[in-house]
Amino acid sequence: MTDNPTPARPNIRHVASAAGVSHMTVSRVLNNHPSIRPGTRQRVLDAIEELNFRPNSAARALATQRNRRIGVLIDASSAYGPSSTLRGIELAAGEEDYSVTSVSVPSEEQGGMQSAVDHLTAQGVDALCVIAPRSSSLATLRQLDIGLPVLAIKAEGDPNFLTTAVDQQQGAILVVDHLAELGHRDILHLAGPLDWFDARARERAFHARIREWKLRERPIVVGDWSADFAYDYAASLKRRPEYTAIFAANDEMALGLIHGFAERGIAVPDELSIVGFDDLPLTAHFLPPLTTVRQDFHLLGTKVVAALISAAEGREVPRRTRLPVELKVRQSSARPRAAS
């Protein structure tokens, strides 16, 4: 170690000087590079402790030629799933000393998508995450030459991008199994818009599982994710439904159903069971508390950030990652009256 006085705000070059190494060596130690000799690593760590050095993103970028910044393209940013995914990515990135720059996709036209990509690349992002829940948005993105690692939030694999997502199919299977085990044999599915990847995955898994259980198959109702749509559907029915349960593709529509059926004098779950998807923060306080599928958006953010950092550093990354879900059984689902 040197006998130079400790600078008020030590930087990576002060550490390099104190340890008698280059600033590139300090950077490799900070990033746990495997090629550093144990003795050299210890000298750098001793200098860091002696100088009370705290690395920042600028110092790391100087040596690694990376800006430690993740870009996020987000479509339908006001919807619960996309906004929660973005929040999960922001939290996970902060834990890795990365920043996040996000841009809402203004339109499905190629010009709008190109402008959003150009904005992010101008910010010096190291990798790009695409929260584009609609198939039309992702199709537009495939036409662009991005030149960065790209990860799309979708459960299916993709020929162009890495993918990471919650297992939507597993969630739908858990719902059907739960209702069938309670004794329901006639279940309606209130789906989300079918140009959304998640809505389509849930709908397909629902039908496949219904057939495996040999339950009654009936046409689905396609909604728009909103409680208003579901309320209007329930309140406008001309007669009491024959089905004994509804699987709503998200919690907001489940809430609208509960409200609409209550106004029709149809009690949940005494006369009709309702199950949602998402586990919104308030679902435990619905009347009745909602049985639903929980998505772990913090875990999703952690996996997305880890994959993008690895890809930006040139390390091998799984092409497709799916995360488990959990069925939260509450009081909106019960045995059908005839089976009670």
Automatic annotation (TrEMBL):
One of its GO terms (molecular function) is DNA-binding transcription factor activity. This is Transcriptional regulator. SMART domains: HTH_LACI. Residues 10-64 form the HTH lacI-type domain. Keywords: DNA-binding, Transcription, Transcription regulation. Pfam families: LacI, Peripla_BP_3. It comes from the Bacteria. It comes from Tessaracoccus aquimaris. The keyword Transcription regulation applies. The keyword Zinc-finger does not apply.
